[in-house]
Amino acid sequence: MAPRITLVTPSYNQAQYLEATAQSIVEQDYPNLEWMIVDGGSTDGSVEIIRKYEGHLAWWVSEKDKGQTDALNKGLRRATGDLFAFLNSDDLYTPGTLHAVGEAFASDPSLTMLLGRCQYITADGSPMDECLYAGDLSIEDFIAYNLVPQPSLFLRLDVCRAVGEFDNGMQYAFDHDYWLRAMLLGHRIRGMDRLLSLYRLHEASKTVTERYKQDLDIVAAHRKAMRSLPVQDPLRQALQRNSARFCRRVAIEHYAWTRNPSIALRFFRQMLALDPTVCDMRMLKVAIKAALRIPAPLPNLPGRA
Fold first, then answer.
1. CA triplet 271, 274, 280: central angle to 5 degrees?
2. Is the pLDDT of residue 300 over 60?
3. Is 190 exposed, middle or buried (0-12, 13-18, 19+ CB in 10 A)?
4. Can you tell me the distance from the alpha carbon of 61 to that of 11, in angstroms, rounded to the nearest whole number?
5. DSSP state, 108?
6. pLDDT at 296
7. What global pTM score does this model have?
């Protein structure tokens, strides 16, 4: 029998994308799906769309909440599946995703976290670049490079029960924080070289509008993880070094992409506080230019996960 997949779709005032998301789920035709939509009290016609798909839903609600993590936790508390995932109300699954994921978990009892490939799309659904796919992911590379496009990650519900709920204190990188907490329990992300999801970038998405806040939240998740480990623990030291590598990377990216020297310098200082030995010549040059308010060239770079 196919493993039962609990899928939660948090939603708030995204009626223009919600139906496409719902169709991508229904068209999976997965035989053992527990799908919930947790809406935050939308006023844009989302509720009418949800009612159209009521026959496919195990549960839905539309009520004021405390944000995306609150919505996810409502669904997680009701989850009865073998596997767990969430798909935001503006993203899509590719055909056959749930069947492929179910078969992968059913054939390998040791598999606890699975990550497939993911592609960016525009607001109107036009294809963009694929997210960088890393295959099997070590905790060090997870920390340093943030290589997990959320719509393409699935995990066993037993792992969720061990990790607990999503952190309501994080509104931007709560998914990164959650995967990291699972990895601290010994679970590792295994790769599936298959395109599982489409990640929509649009003017209202957090990835586009508040990227630096997401990056700050990621560093906060790293620090929280470090505090949970003894000072001399080699894993804590690895987390600290790789968090510094993350700060180095995003400092350079923010200087080049957002062309905001203040944000670049903020991550540069965080890098120095975590591990100054990761500073290289490129980072030093960027920091000097940022301090002198020398503008970066206009960017011509693809999106990143």
1. 45
2. no
3. middle
4. 10
5. -
6. 83
7. 0.93
